[in-house]
Specification:
Elements (H helix, E strand, L loop, with lengths): L6 E3 L2 E3 L3 E4 L2 E4 L4 E13 L2 H10 L4 H4 L7 E14 L2 E9 L2 H18 L2
Antiparallel strand pairs: 1-2, 2-3, 3-4, 5-6, 6-7
Keywords: Membrane, Transmembrane, Transmembrane helix
């Protein structure tokens, strides 16, 4: 049952003996794993606030413009996972939108690191 996938990190599938990538297989034993976060945050006025300002402009001109001060933080980016074993290396870039997704990837990589050390 050594072909059963024990972890899936982006397009990287990990079995108890190998790391399967789109570029081919890499042995799991003695592999090294690196994780890098590349986050961007963006401040954006939500659509509902724009509509409230436009519709409220007819009723309460000045106060309705306060809706345009409402900001929403949007997180986006990628987590880069690199697996290396000898001369073989593969880099996966996984798109993320929440901190929970980033933490899940880190947890999976830590689990695979423990398997690789066995």
């Amino acid at each position: 049952m050594s072909d059963a996938v024990v972890a899936l990190i982006g397009e990287i599938a990990v079995t108890p003996t190998a790391v399967r990538t789109p570029a081919g297989e890499i042995p799991l034993a003695q592999s090294t794993w690196q994780v890098s976060d590349f986050w961007q945050t963006e401040q954006k006025t939500p659509t509902w606030a724009i509509w409230a300002a436009v519709l409220g402009f007819c009723v309460l001109t000045v106060l309705s413009l306060l809706f345009l001060l409402v900001k929403q933080t949007i997180y986006k980016g990628t987590v880069q996972v690199t697996v290396t074993n000898g001369p073989r290396q593969y880099v996966a870039r996984i798109p993320v939108t929440t901190q929970e997704q980033v933490q899940q990837i880190h947890n999976q990589v830590n689990y695979v690191r423990s398997l690789a050390a066995l």
